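Section handout, structural biology tutorial.
Before the tutorial, make sure you can parse a SMILES string by hand: atoms, branches in parentheses, ring closures as digits. In the record below the ligand is S-adenosylmethionine, and the chain has 583 residues. In the tutorial you will relate the predicted structure tokens back to the input. Do not try to memorize them.
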Amino acid sequence: MEKRRYPPGKAGFEKRRKDEQSRPRVTEGSPDQVLDIEATTLLERLRNEKGTDARDKDTDDLKSSSAQTEKPEAGTELQLEIQELSSTGDGLAYSPDKDHDLVFVVPFSVPGDKVLAKTDPQKPDSHQWMKVDFVKLLSPSPSRDGVTPQCRYFGTCSGCQLQMLPYQEQLAHKKTIIEKAFKHFSNLDPSLIPPVEETIGSPLQYGYRTKITPHYDGTHKSRPWKEGDQPPPFGFTKKNVSKILDIEQCPIATDILNEGLKIERKNVADTFWKKSTGATVLLRESTKREVLSSSQATKARTLSNSKDTATNGAALAQDLSRLPLEYPGSPTSTSVSFSKPSVPEITYTYPSFQDTKTYTSDHKAFTTEHIGPYTYTTLANSFFQNNNSILPTFLSYIRDQILPKTPAISATGETYTPKIKYLLDAYCGSGLFSIALASEFSSVLGIDIDALGIQCARENATINNPQKANGQSNLGFIAADATAIFEDVPYPADQTLCIIDPPRKGASPDFLKQLCAYGPKRVVYVSCNVHTQARDVGMLVAGLGGKEHKSWRYSIEKVGGFDFFPQTGHVEGVCFLNRVEEQ
Ligand SMILES: C[S@@+](CC[C@H](N)C(=O)[O-])C[C@H]1O[C@@H](n2cnc3c(N)ncnc32)[C@H](O)[C@@H]1O
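Predicted structure of the complex:
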């Protein structure tokens, strides 16, 4: 029998709700909440190791004991040794000798580093932790050996904090982020959480991001800008300071976005003084893919590194649907050209196809992405995954895992293989999963609150033409809040798989409650915030709802991560769940 921290049904739901209400009000799954938990856990461990009387105290006692802790004054320099890398990507250090019984949060550091850090009164802090400035590295951790961060803004920009770690260590760290998320946020007994899978890496570790949003601040009305003024910094936010860092080049962005950044920087420099307000500029990549006929492919190979390869479009064959769902590897040649002075294009030639990349800064423009055989058109400002290089591996993995491989045991104890014929794609965006997985199901229904995203999903269903034998598409899409999918589900729950891929805040309690009431046979939960994912998965495993309506519970089959965001502290979590049949 599975052990649970909360009893099933209404009593458990009420107890969990009361517990959650009694917690301090911080945004769930936010970096500061994650720091609170990880700093408290580290303090508890270190105090126990020191043999203090903290051994028998629970977390709340620790919080109140550290509330009396004196914090060092502003501008104090501290020599610290980093103990742990937090899930926020910061080093955590403890300095008990100085009477500061708290954790110092040091950016740009890794376990084993000895650093000089400095306190700053403007940095946020809490009872358990205090953010400090990194001043200099006194002695590096062996983890840093042989790694040079590729970004010239490393150490100032808030973006890519893990650049000093070898890629394999970044992946290992991301596995621990998922482990800690399930430990601290799921409220589940550890026996209910399977060992977390190894994180699957990204083929591109730099130059992968297909969307960036640099910004600049406005000026005060009393000091209006005038023509000829120095342009304000245009780039990304500095680490731990609400100021913008001027950025000329972003090494995690794709090459075409870096070409675009030069153009957008010039536009900002030419026009900023006309208004007093700041602005955020969107740069999103778009790709035109053409399959090469065999003679063109031979010609393209011999024209390696020649600009001519970009102009062979007219004679190219067009059957994209035969391309394999895999990362194509490095191009055989690359060429940069300008169709107009301010419209850059980069053409990448592969053995069997050619990609021409452009970018747009127009929110209302349509952009196109190709993932193996699939073509997705999306509004530039609507959601689409930002790392195209990992998507073929990711979609293949999901396709291989969605249908149950092992037989299930029915309520009467018989073994059988569930027949899953239907897919509900909740938070479907422009149809990434629906379209790539349509061939596995008799019928697919996607839902998203972004009406324009749904318009694109319908268009994408037509472009990719996943027709059934009778000539009817098996894909349907609804523009509405995700809970609406349960109003009148056209599929029997026993034969349905539900994919959930909500925004960072996770699924709404109402959505989870209705999901448990409907009870699809299998659930795949994908998320860019593994903390809210762990919280929501915990609820599905515990079971929601009360006596008034039936509620199914789930067990976790598998959980792991994909590195959609190399060099950063983020990871995409994927969790497979099966309905528990003992009702
Ligand atoms: C992380 S994206 C996933 C999109 C899609 N699955 C993909 O991978 O391209 C989250 C999506 O949730 C949608 N969304 C946000 N709140 C929603 C809600 N209350 N109901 C339905 N969709 C919502 C957003 O519009 C966005 O498309």
